[in-house]
Inverse folding.
């Protein structure tokens, strides 16, 4: 029996429906109604209702008490953070990120690549009164973030090309340009770019390398205040050193690997 026949034989329709619902809800900030979910997945309302009951019972989905919208709980995020790799990374990162936030007076977050997006798995606020932060657990398209570009720039060539084929740039940038830009990020060891979302914010991001390759990206959404700001060039140098410290703490190298192939 070949792989295709084996895959067709061992199907689990109920599981697939549940996973489809989770996937749809993961991209919605304000949740969806039962009818919206059914319409999106092209399934009956009855099918969706039965699956929602099970997902609610397991604590993965909740119903907004003030309305009729379902949304994902944090349980999946909590489960992901119990995996050995993520747990080890976040534990090692916590004191380094806290020291970085205190030294620069800027907030800092840690992100990993998941499908076409990044997921924020760690977040530390700066000690000041004015805070620019990214929500813990936020899922953001990789191409639209400095974290995502750092992660993509340090992927092995085969993985990067597969990602590029499946998830082309949303603005239609040519692959040759993307390879050139990401190659520059890999060689520099950091990315610095204006935020796609917030005016006046410059994102600075550096790679966290494990012994097997790129593990995460550490990022400062830099805010230049009228008084007391650490200059952005100094802030970047401190971030790069902190990223190197975290890389060493998880048994990796203090910088991008030669195996990376984006450019």
């Amino acid at each position: 029996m070949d792989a295709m026949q084996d895959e067709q034989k061992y199907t689990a329709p109920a599981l697939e429906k549940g996973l489809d619902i989770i996937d749809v809800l993961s991209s919605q900030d304000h949740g969806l109604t039962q009818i919206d979910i059914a319409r999106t997945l092209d399934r009956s309302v009855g099918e969706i209702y039965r699956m929602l009951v099970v997902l609610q019972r397991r604590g993965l989905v909740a119903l907004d008490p003030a309305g009729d919208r379902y949304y994902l709980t944090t349980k999946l995020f909590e489960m992901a953070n119990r995996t050995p790799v993520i747990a080890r990374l976040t534990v090692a990162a916590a004191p380094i990120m806290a020291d970085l936030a205190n030294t620069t007076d800027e907030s800092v977050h840690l992100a990993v690549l998941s499908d076409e997006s990044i997921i924020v798995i760690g977040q530390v606020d700066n000690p000041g009164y004015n805070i620019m932060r990214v929500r813990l657990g936020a899922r953001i398209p990789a191409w639209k973030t400095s974290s995502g570009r750092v992660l993509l720039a340090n992927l092995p060539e085969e993985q990067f090309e597969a990602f590029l084929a499946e998830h082309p740039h949303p603005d239609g940038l040519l692959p040759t340009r993307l390879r050139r830009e990401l190659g520059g990020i890999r060689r520099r060891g950091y990315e610095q770019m204006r935020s796609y979302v917030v005016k006046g914010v410059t994102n600075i991001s550096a790679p966290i390398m494990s012994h097997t390759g790129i593990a995460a990206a550490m990022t400062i959404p830099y805010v230049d205040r009228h008084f007391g700001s650490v200059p952005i060039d100094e802030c970047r140098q401190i971030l790069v050193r902190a990223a190197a410290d975290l890389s060493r703490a998880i048994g990796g190298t203090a910088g991008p690997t030669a195996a990376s192939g984006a450019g």
The two ends are 40 Å apart (CA to CA). Residues 84-104 form the longest helix (21 residues).
